Amino acid sequence: MDTQKRLHENISALADGELADSERELALAALDTAEGQAAWRAYHLAGDVLRDQAGGALSAGFSASLAARLAAEPVYTAGAAPAERAGDPSAPAPDQAESPADVILP
């Protein structure tokens, strides 16, 4: 296992109160780095979200930005004619039925 991954796992376990005493010194040393501090904040934020305790509000303009990004997404049309898919190399052959899983999964 690489060192960075192990440090992140130790920081995560420390944030969850599940870190073995033998690993505590290494995790605390990692918290003295900018990357370690960022990981600590990220794990705490993830925990807050999972416990539904995140106390943040959406930034100004978030809704408009999300709406604009969604509007820019291509529209999927079930049963689109093969000519409409001609430029898409991942589109199924005309004689293949397309399942919903083909649309969602790569």
The low-confidence runs, each spanning 5 or more residues with pLDDT under 50, are none
**Number of strand elements:** 0
Q: What is the ordering of alpha helices and beta strands?
A: HHHHH
Helix content, binned percent: 40-55%
Number of helices: 5
How much strand?
Answer: under 5%
The Rg value, from CA coordinates, equals 23 Å
Q: Ends: how far apart? A: 29 Å
**Quaternary arrangement of the chains shown?**
single chain
- Mass-distribution shape: elongated
Helices and strands: which structural class?
Answer: mainly alpha
Largest sheet: none
Which features characterize this protein?
about 110 residues, mainly alpha, about 55% helix
